[in-house]
Design brief:
A hairpin with a 2-residue loop joins strand 1 (3-9) and strand 2. With 268 residues, the chain is an alpha+beta fold. 40% of the residues lie in helices and 22% in strands. The chain is built from 11 helices and 10 strands. The strands form 2 sheets. The chain has a 6-stranded antiparallel β-sheet with strand order 1-2-9-4-7-10. Helix 2 runs antiparallel to helix 4, helix 7 (187-193) crosses helix 8 (198-209) and helix 9 (213-230) crosses helix 11 (248-259). The chain has 2 domains: 3-162, Jelly Rolls; 173-265, Homeodomain-like (Arc Repressor Mutant, subunit A), CATH 1.10.10.60.
């Protein structure tokens, strides 16, 4: 059946994956508060890997690159409730709740395990999903404001994330690309995250790396995969997603073209 997403409100959805797994490199426009109901989730952020299971609650910051891989487990689909904490809604909230914001560099996602108050807040949305009817904005606003209030009670420092409405500033291309080359993002998004227009991003990239972004990204991803297979003794099927490839056959073709042999032929 694949992926199903049912919205009871533009900012509230129930997401379900029935396939063997679902992988995506994601960049969220808004903060997302996620409650995992069933299944298992693997999140890769930089050189760190995190696993989450049924009952865990996670806050994804906006404008952060992560790889998300969702797996069904124990005969159940991967299912989660997702709440969008949009800029407009947070702006309204903090207009009534003034705070002094400190810069967080870089923002990271927050985990809340199975906190009973957050769980109760998000679980209260399930009957609305079961009714399969749209949720009035007045009720949605109450639910979202409740969640924000609970987050602030659990973690007083969360204001520095939620009340920071700055857009990405101009970053070092070398530092940013070396940390994020494995993410499958459009050139537009790479440009946005480094504080550049697409034209400026391509121009600056060529000046710094003496090649195109597409060629540089392919070379870096293949080098990472080669290292993981040869030095870490991992299988091609275990590394191609983390290296930024969408499917195993395309990875194998690109690898052979670059190195002259298949990834399965590597001898450590």
């Amino acid at each position: 059946m694949g992926h199903q997403a049912y919205y009871i409100h533009p900012d509230l959805k129930l997401s379900s994956f029935d396939d063997k797994f679902y992988k995506a490199d994601v960049l969220f426009e808004h903060h997302l508060l996620v409650w995992f109901i069933s299944g298992e989730t693997k999140i890769v952020q930089g050189d760190k890997v995190h696993w989450f299971g049924a009952g865990d609650i996670l806050l994804f910051p906006r404008n952060q690159l992560v790889t998300v891989i969702n797996y069904p487990k124990d005969g159940l689909p991967h299912k989660s409730v997702v709440m969008h904490l949009t800029k407009s809604r947070l702006t309204g909230f903090y207009a009534k709740n003034k705070v002094d914001v400190k810069q967080m560099q870089p923002p990271k996602f927050h985990t809340f395990d199975q906190h009973p108050l957050l769980k109760s807040c998000l679980a209260s949305l399930i009957p609305y999903f079961e009714l399969k009817e749209s949720l009035p904005d007045t009720i949605a606003s109450i639910k979202i404001e409740e969640a924000i209030t609970i987050l602030r009670m659990i973690d007083p420092n969360i204001d520095h994330l939620l009340a920071n409405f700055d857009e990405p500033g101009k970053l070092s291309l070398v530092d940013f690309m070396e940390q994020n080359y494995m993410f499958n993002m459009s050139m537009d998004k790479f440009g946005y995250l480094t504080g550049r227009s697409l034209t400026t991003f391509k121009r600056d990239f060529k000046k710094v790396f003496q090649t195109t972004p597409q060629k540089w990204l392919m070379d870096k991803r293949l080098e990472l995969a080669h290292y993981q297979i040869r030095e870490k003794k991992r299988k091609p099927s275990e590394v191609y997603l983390e290296a930024g490839f969408e499917n195993l056959s395309h990875f194998g073709y690109a690898f052979r073209k670059r190195y002259g042999y298949a990834p399965t032929e590597i001898v450590g």
